[in-house]
Design brief:
The protein has seven helices and six strands, in the order ααββαααββαββα. By secondary structure, the protein is mainly alpha-helical.
């Protein structure tokens, strides 16, 4: 596995990933100039991603079945995000995957009281850390899909990108400036190519 890839690929963060781990999960596969990139390609890569996002202790191992469930959750979330953005009803299997993941290791509800006042501080299920990590991701996605930020959930309009982000304003169509620049460069190239070779502008 290429341990340098995650560092390189996160040089331009996608808006919303810092607030929603489920959004970061959906964006673990996308296309770049040399082809498709999958940050969860293999059990070791999936383990590393969960550890880096504070969802799993480094000492806890991840087996192939658990890694497969993480990939299944990612695909279900991608389907649910698209349904939410399109205003359509998602396929039942995507919803079932999310709900089964939520039920596999539900957190115990807790109320904490700090200097800022009371707030929820649910305790993750410690009996099965991997299932708890996936359940946290599913809960995070449920919060995103049902909260105020859901209306800003958008798929990048750049061809082949396939990443999702939270729009900071209504006109934003690309996840990063890199995607926006790539689209503008492609349009400029297409416009030049479509122009007559006899009519060059000075």
């Amino acid at each position: 596995m290429d341990h340098e890839s995650p560092v390189y690929l996160h040089q331009l963060p996608v808006p919303g990933e810092d607030r929603y781990a489920s959004l970061a999960l959906v964006n673990t596969w996308f296309t770049v100039s040399h082809g498709r990139v999958d940050l969860l390609d293999g059990t070791e890569a999936a383990h590393l991603w969960l550890v880096r996002h504070g969802l799993l202790p480094d000492r806890v191992t991840l087996n192939g079945r658990q890694s497969g469930r993480l990939l299944a959750l990612r695909e279900a979330l991608r389907t649910l995000f698209r349904a939410r953005a399109d205003g359509t009803r998602p396929p039942a299997d995507a919803l079932d995957t999310l709900n089964a993941t939520l039920a596999a290791a539900p957190a115990t509800p807790r109320l904490a009281w700090t200097a800022d006042g009371p707030h929820r501080a649910d305790v993750p299920d410690s009996g099965n850390p991997a299932a708890a990590a996936l359940s946290q991701l599913a809960e995070d996605a449920a919060d995103l899909l049902t909260g105020a930020d859901a209306a800003q959930l958008t798929e990048c309009a750049a061809q082949g990108c396939a990443r999702w982000f939270l729009r900071s304003h209504g006109a934003r169509r690309w996840c990063t400036t890199k995607c926006g620049n790539r689209v503008r460069a492609a349009r400029a190239y297409a416009a030049r190519k479509a122009g007559s070779p006899e009519k060059h502008l000075p």
